[in-house]
Design goal:
This protein is of the alpha/beta class. The protein folds into two domains: about 120 residues, Rossmann fold; about 180 residues, Glycogen Phosphorylase B (Rossmann fold, 3-Layer(aba) Sandwich), CATH 3.40.50.2000. About 45% of the residues lie in helices and about 15% in strands. It is built from 13 helices and ten strands. The strands form two sheets. It has a six-stranded parallel β-sheet with strand order 7-6-5-8-9-10, sandwiched between helices. A four-stranded parallel β-sheet has the order 1-2-3-4, with helices on both faces. Strand 5, helix 6 and strand 6 form a beta-alpha-beta unit. Helix 6 crosses helix 11. The two termini are about 15 Å apart. About 35% of the residues are buried.
Length: about 325
Amino acid sequence: LRQDYQIIRALSKYLKNEGIEILHTHGVKAAFLGQIAAFLAGTPRVIHTFHNLIYDRPYPFWKKWIYIWANRFLHLRADGIIAVSFALKKQLIKVEKIPESKIKVIYNGLSPHRFMPLVDVKRKKKSLQLEDGKPVIGVVARLVPEKGVDLFLDCIDLIAKQRKGTQFLIIGDGPQRPLLEQKCRQLNLGQKLQMLGFRRDVAEILPILNVVVIPSRSEGLSITALEAMACRRPIVAFAAGALPELIHPCKTGILVPQNQIQALAQAVLFLLDNPKIAERLGKNACEFVQAHFSLEKMIRETELNYLEIFKGKTKKEQEIRFDLVTD
């Protein structure tokens, strides 16, 4: 609480001293603290962006209840709400009773060229102690329950029994790591799987993956999917959250019903057995991301949203200065 008080105090002072006319927050806690700071500073406009689906996660009821009422308070005070997907917008309307007219969907964007590096695949595999000539299947995710990495471990067990020599990677870290390592030992996956932890070279690892698996139980909008698509990687995923907005079956990837581990494994095996189809899916996915999920498109739509909210109400409508405040 002391740290939260200090954040509110510092942000309120900054907003007032700099004459900020719009505060844009990201995430529930940032929105809650930012809303209080904006009120104290007299900041006239506040926008909140929500990035994650909450209510289909394996959270206890009391935690979901807190989120519901916190978000309802926030939307009453906010001038605009941005959702990063239509699936998230639908949930905000249904569960939190936010008026549809108040929510704008603006997809996350990325710079596709950042995820098209020239990678020496053989050298990269060697650096990760992977055998060349054998397929590599990977997951890139935070190790938390909603990302479903435990389900991927079950999937590995099924794939390995049918496709000897297949290699598996998990890139990412998080609080579930000890439990996942324990499950790896129980399934005897030690020789087949590497858990690489947090990596800064994801853009160089993605090109060595034959298939990217997204076994999420919940997704607001998967950044991993966007990055893999930009790298022309074929994706197999559960039809969770906003993933169907990115992965169009047999066009930009393969979707299977949620929690159907057998179906997930069979889809991966299908792509390994049909490399030309996998290549076509990767190519289509890359073109789809370039057309609809560019960083420039996201920025422009956000700017237009600012101007729409400000119309006739800002002191300097023709001269808006954007300040980025991070912790």
